Amino acid sequence: MTPDEETLLRRAIELAAEARAAGDPPFGSLLADAGGRVLAEERNTTVTGRDISAHPELKLAVWAARELDPATAAATTMFTSCQPCGMCAGAIQRSGLGRVVYALSEGQLGELKPGGAAWPQVPQEGPALLDEARVPVEGYYR
């Protein structure tokens, strides 16, 4: 990691501290172009915004998908205070961002939580009703 990238990652950590000071979980992220110019930054607002999806990584991925053309998005780097969760990782992948650099890993975050607290797994069942479910999907991705 270059000194300039370290500076951008430190800014993401500052955004995490701002989120915590505002009463939200301590996570912050920013999106930079290939030259290191900050295009957008966000912090977690899940508590104050009463929105479980208001993770900074997800907000930036949505912003990039709306505001950037694919080539520009692919040339960006997201700097984030913690490794993106599954929800955010999926959004990042779909948005076409080029790279993610994070400070804390998911495992390191778990070590900082009392008892390694994690969200409970929700059972999933399926596949089911394949013949019916395939009708609206067939041909869409061609």
Automatic annotation (TrEMBL):
Single GO molecular function: guanine deaminase activity
Pfam families xrefs: dCMP_cyt_deam_1 (PF00383)
Top-level lineage group: Bacteria
PROSITE patterns: CYT_DCMP_DEAMINASES_2
Matching Gene3D superfamilies: Cytidine Deaminase, domain 2
Listed EC numbers: 3.5.4.3
UniProt keyword list: Hydrolase
Residue ranges of domain CMP/dCMP-type deaminase in the record: 3-120
Name listed for the protein in its UniProt record: Guanine deaminase
Species annotation: Nonomuraea coxensis DSM 45129
Source lineage: Bacteria, Bacillati, Actinomycetota, Actinomycetes, Streptosporangiales
